[in-house]
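Table S2 (text version). Query chain:
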Amino acid sequence: MNELQRDMKYQVNEEKADTESKIAMKKDAIQSSDESIQLYEDEQKSLQEKLQKLNEKQQDLAMK
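Corresponding structure-token output:
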């Protein structure tokens, strides 16, 4: 293997490592986003349940 081939192999390995690192960072970002989405969905569900209970309470008071 001559020097040019070694340099090319090194460069390919460096690019491969860099690309794998970028993929890992994107996966982490996606996971973080998914967790945030889940938190917002849980909060939204809780608020919708609270609104439903308040609507029921309002109807009960209107009937009295």
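Notes on Table S2: DSSP finds one helix and no strands in the chain. Residues 28 and 43 are 23 Å apart (CA to CA).
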